[in-house]
Write a structure and sequence with these properties.
Number of strands: 6
Protein name: Membrane protein
Keywords: Membrane, Transmembrane, Transmembrane helix
CATH class of the largest domain: Mainly Beta
Number of domains: 2
Strand order of the largest sheet: 1-2-5
Organism: Streptomyces poonensis
Distance between the termini: 89 Å
Helix content: 25-40%
C-alpha cells in the first residue's frame, strides 16, 4: 500500500505566501538595522566632534560654606565658555551651583575655583561645560 503525499508538487504553484513574507521581513529588518547604525554613528560623531570644551574635577576640598574644586579644562584656542559645578549635602539636596567662565587662548586650564554653598556640602560635581 502507498501513502498519499501531503506536500504540493515542487515548482508547480509558485512560491508560498510564507516565503514571500519571510523575504519582505528580512529586507525590512536589514533596512531598519542599517538606518539604526547610521543614526547611532551620526549622534556619536556629533557628541564627540561637537564637544569643543571638556573638563574634569581633579579634586575638591570641603568647608562649612564653600567647596574648593581643582578644575582642569581642555578647549580649542579660539573658544570661550563656561563650566557648571554643583555641590550636594549628605542627603542629596543641592546646596550650591555656579558657572565658572573660561576664556583666552590657552587650550588647557588648571584652576582652583570656589563654589559657595548654603550648607556644608559633601560633593563637587561637574554638571557640564558649554561654549559661548
Amino acid at each position: 500500500m502507498s501513502t498519499a503525499s501531503t506536500q504540493l508538487p515542487e515548482g508547480r504553484y509558485g512560491r508560498s505566501a510564507d516565503a514571500r513574507a519571510d523575504r519582505t521581513l528580512k529586507i525590512a529588518g536589514a533596512v531598519l538595522g542599517a538606518a539604526l547604525v547610521v543614526l547611532v554613528a551620526w549622534f556619536g560623531y556629533h557628541y564627540v566632534a561637537g564637544s569643543r570644551i571638556s573638563a574634569e574635577v581633579i579634586k575638591f576640598e570641603l568647608s562649612d560654606r564653600s567647596v574648593e574644586a581643582h578644575l582642569e579644562v581642555r578647549k580649542d584656542a579660539d573658544v570661550d565658555g563656561y563650566c557648571t559645578l554643583r555641590s550636594q549635602d549628605e542627603t542629596g539636596k543641592e546646596v550650591g551651583r555656579a558657572d565658572f567662565r573660561f576664556d583666552g587662548d590657552a587650550t588647557r586650564i588648571d584652576e582652583v575655583v570656589t563654589l559657595r554653598t548654603t550648607a556644608p556640602g559633601t560633593t563637587a560635581e561637574l554638571m557640564g561645560c558649554h561654549a559661548g
